[in-house]
Amino acid sequence: MAFFRVLIGLLALASVVCFVLYATSRDPRWRQRGWLIMKWTLIASLGFFAVLIAERLIFPPGVPAPPVTP
Which residues cross the membrane (predicted)? Predict the structure, then answer.
């Protein structure tokens, strides 16, 4: 869980860095990289939140999880 939060944060930071580099150098490659990283950041975050929502729907809070049998 913490791994994905850190990953999404680092991807967002990398996208901001690319946009800053584009703003300072006006090289269109940095803008393209920034949009590409931003796109995958949004896809990763939507997947992360979909898993959280599915987990809440399958195992609502306050209801004990079913026992695991070997």
Answer: 6-24, 36-59
DSSP string of the chain, one letter each residue: -HHHHHHHHHHHHHHHHHHHHHHHH--HHHHHHHHHHHHHHHHHHHHHHHHHHHHHHHS-TTSPPPPP--
pLDDT tens figures, 50-70: 999 999 998 888 878 778 887
Does residue 64 sit within a domain?
no
The boundaries of the domain holding residue 14 are 2-58
- d(CA 22, CA 32) in angstroms, rounded, equals 9
Query: How many independent structural domains does the chain possess?
Result: 1
